[in-house]
Specification:
This protein is mostly helical and 193 residues long. The chain is built from six helices and two strands. The chain is elongated and about 85 Å long.
Amino acid sequence: MTFFYKNKIGLSVYVFILPLLFCSPLFSQQKDIVTSVLIINSIIVFEKSKLGNDILIAFQQADFELKKEADLNVKKFEEEELELTQKREILTKKEFNELADNFDKRVQKTRNLYDLKDSQLRSNLESWKKKFIELSGRVIQPIMLQYDAFIVLDSSQIDLFFDNRIDITDQVIFELDNLYESDPKYLDLIIGK
């Protein structure tokens, strides 16, 4: 009987104390701190938000298509190089050198073209990220008002030591996801489709 009585008291204590612990500010997602400075990690917001993921998927698809196109050209040039090598025995040295020089110039021109296209694609991604950050401002501003904050620092850009209670990264991801779900046009606005 004492075992049951002790366990009943222990159970009552747990039932009473556990909700208090989980409702405490330490465990609560509710940020009841007043500060003029908030912290965000823009890299995490970009990588973990649905819109950021869709932007990355659009980039990866464009990158894949570019690589596929480049690979087709590489294959064509390999076939042409094989044909040129086979013609070496029937052409004069001068004719062969002219064809080989022309081939090398076309290969280099194509390489330069794909380097440029790759560079443009990576520039597009940076532009898309900037537009994403600008759009993030739509959800960051109301969060700043909620905290009476005047400044949001990006912890991905600088080394900071701060109280985790002023980190709004997860809150921004949540609000951005809600904004994007309510109007999926934001992906097209950012990547320009």
